[in-house]
Write a structure and sequence with these properties.
- With 369 residues, the chain is mainly alpha-helical.
- The longest helix has 27 residues.
- It is built from 17 helices and no strands.
- The termini are far apart.
- Helix 14 packs antiparallel against helix 15.
Length: 369
């Protein structure tokens, strides 16, 4: 057996082990907490059938795709056990780990980068928390990561399949979670800086996605009006009852929650990714995708916090899809270390730290419905 074949088998074994670790973290205690209010809404909508739930969500603050998926799952499984229903969050979280690995491999041409990103995601407290909740947040993490992968394929290879995959994923994101639009803005900014000739082509793809979403736009404005009346506030945008202001305390809480109170370690690894990418003999393409991961993480959350100064749009869970961008930066640092044994040691260290500290990425327990 050639060395490359052995390496491929070892990499396959490693990512399977990481996915098993992630699956254990996601489903462990999956029914430990009883259903709380927001989950009850998800369950209630899923009992209505696709047409009725689509009409009913016009009075909600979210689009209908996740509720439709939950309806389909409960219909196929024939079970309304809370553990079974919450698998609609655990499965997308597991797939997000696999997509994070694939992004690391394809963007940086390194299985080490993919493994580093996958381990970070599999033990990320905030992702584990939402992988155990009957809501759409884990699903949108998966859709956002997949949209970046299809964007990469379209930019590097072109082709109808990549274009259709990207525009379909953007439409799915919008029908799952409105704040996915922030990810689209980040992608537009990235392409404008690094693939300027493809920018208008990207805009055309997004126009098609917008046309797919267009029938739901009047509902979005209706939902905003309902929320404005409930909150008795006059701003045009925002989910007013659930938002938090841009303050030092909330920024600190964001950092601590998304890094499970390991913000110094995680931010250091992210900074090292940027420094090493520009100080070592990496290609221009490699550095471009390091910047993609950095923009994915830091530009997106900065946009949230800045706009939140004028419009109430920020809540701790709203920017959850940035976690994959942060994971990719960690993966880059792992890859740029000097030896395989050092890389392996760092990956094991990340897994142990993640498993030990992941509860620090959890939000306070909610009162049952």
């Amino acid at each position: 057996m050639r060395l490359t074949q052995k390496q491929s088998l070892l990499s396959l074994f490693a990512i399977c082990a990481v996915c098993l670790l992630g699956w254990f973290m996601f489903v462990h205690h999956l029914r430990y907490e009883s259903m709380w209010t927001d989950e009850w809404f998800s369950w209630q909508y899923s009992q209505m059938g696709p047409l009725e739930l689509t009409r009913s969500t016009a009075q909600d603050v979210h689009p209908p795709l996740y509720y439709t998926l939950l309806w389909l799952w409960t219909s196929l499984s024939g079970s309304q056990d809370l553990l079974v229903m919450r698998l609609t969050a655990a499965f997308p979280a597991l797939l997000a780990v696999a997509v994070g690995y694939r992004l690391g491999c394809d963007w940086f041409k390194s299985r080490w980068a993919g493994l580093g990103a996958a381990v970070f995601l599999a033990t990320s407290g905030i992702l584990i928390y939402y992988a155990r909740e009957l809501r759409m947040y884990a699903l949108v993490v998966l859709l956002a990561a997949a949209s970046w992968w299809y964007l990469w394929r379209w930019l590097h290879r072109g082709g109808r399949t990549a274009a259709l995959g990207y525009l379909a994923l953007v439409a799915l994101m919008l029908y799952t979670y409105y704040f996915s639009g922030f990810m689209v803005v980040t992608q537009l900014v990235y392409v404008a800086f690094f693939y300027r000739r493809r920018w208008f082509g990207l805009v055309r793809l997004l126009v098609v996605s917008g046309l797919i979403f267009l029938p739901w736009v009047p509902v979005v404005f209706h939902q905003m009006d309902v929320e404005r009346q409930i909150s008795k506030r006059g701003e045009l945008f925002g989910k007013y009852n659930a938002t938090a202001p841009t303050t030092i305390e909330n920024i600190t809480l964001f950092l601590n929650t998304y890094t499970a109170k390991q913000s110094g370690l995680v931010l250091l690894l992210a900074l090292l990714a940027l420094l090493l990418a520009y100080q070592t003999a990496t290609s221009a393409a490699f550095r471009r995708w390091v910047m993609a991961a950095a923009l994915w993480c830091f530009f997106t959350i900065t946009t949230f916090f800045v706009l939140n100064l004028w419009f109430p749009i920020y809540n701790l869970r709203y920017p959850l899809p940035i976690i994959t961008g942060l994971a990719l930066l960690v993966g880059v640092t792992v890859y740029l270390l000097r030896s395989d044994w050092t890389r392996l040691g760092v990956i094991v260290f990340l897994a142990v730290v993640g498993m030990v500290s992941h509860f620090d990425g959890f939000l306070p327990a909610r009162a049952p419905y």
